[in-house]
Specification:
This protein has 65 residues and is an alpha+beta fold. It is 42% helix and 20% strand. The chain is globular and about 35 Å long. It starts with a strand and ends with a helix.
Length: 65
């Protein structure tokens, strides 16, 4: 699991929803699971992911950042 620190809850939720709409599941993790102001996306990478899938994730995150 690779966390991607976002900060605010609204931003984390927006990013998670936008990625999900693109077929990428990276749920937003928010308080009380993590401290306030430290919302993040939970990215789960496995050996089953292809290089192309990881590149697609990276490209999608770059657009949102």
């Amino acid at each position: 699991i690779q966390p991607l620190m976002i900060g605010g809850n609204v931003d984390a939720l927006r990013m998670a929803e936008t990625l999900y709409a693109q077929g990428i599941w990276a749920p937003a993790i928010r308080p009380p699971t993590v401290p306030r102001g430290e919302a993040r996306l939970r990215i789960s990478l496995t050996a089953a992911h292809t290089t192309q899938q990881v590149a697609r994730l990276c490209d999608a995150i770059r657009v949102l950042a």
